[in-house]
Amino acid sequence: MMSLRNGSRVALGLAALTMGISIAPAQSTPATPPAATPAVAAAGAAVPWAVFSGYKRYHGNCSTCHGPDGLGGTFAPALATSLKTMDHDQFLEIVVNGKANAQLAMPEFGADPNVMCYIEDIYTYLKARSDGAVPRGRPAPQPTRPADVAEAENACMGS
Ligand code: HEC
To answer: 7-18: per-residue pLDDT in tens?
Structure first.
């Protein structure tokens, strides 16, 4: 079955990842560590996974209307500004049910798993943008998706 195949592929991927991590320290320390690592670390720690995921999902589903980085577009308001006054429940209500004034329509996403399975990430990202906690652009360095998050996402997406 589809779900089993996908599940075992994820499990295999995770196993490979874990092995890669656990094998590395057991080997003799290389004379020169990979050059990129210290530079990346010095540039700043990775953002929490939810922020990075929210960045990706926002730009996959919302930015065509709401503009890059939550800054607003021709068709729809700047959500980084909206979240300065709008609370979590109001945000969720609009995403689930949509909203329309005379000229413009915010689609309803309540039945779209590509949005709803990641809506807390999208909220977290936009809230961080709203608070000025993350700058414009793709957050770097890229964090690693935690295993429990991967599991929850797969369960939500029904894979
Ligand atoms: C097809 C264009 C379009 C897309 C795609 C879209 N929106 Fe909207 N959205 C709008 C429009 C237009 C409004 C303003 C509606 C109004 O004021 O009646 C809006 C309003 C909103 C509001 C209320 C903002 C405020 O200040 O009142 C929120 C929250 C929101 N959208 C979230 C999202 C999220 C999250 C996504 C992605 C999952 C998304 N939207 C995708 C067009 C879009």
So the answer is: 444 443 333 333
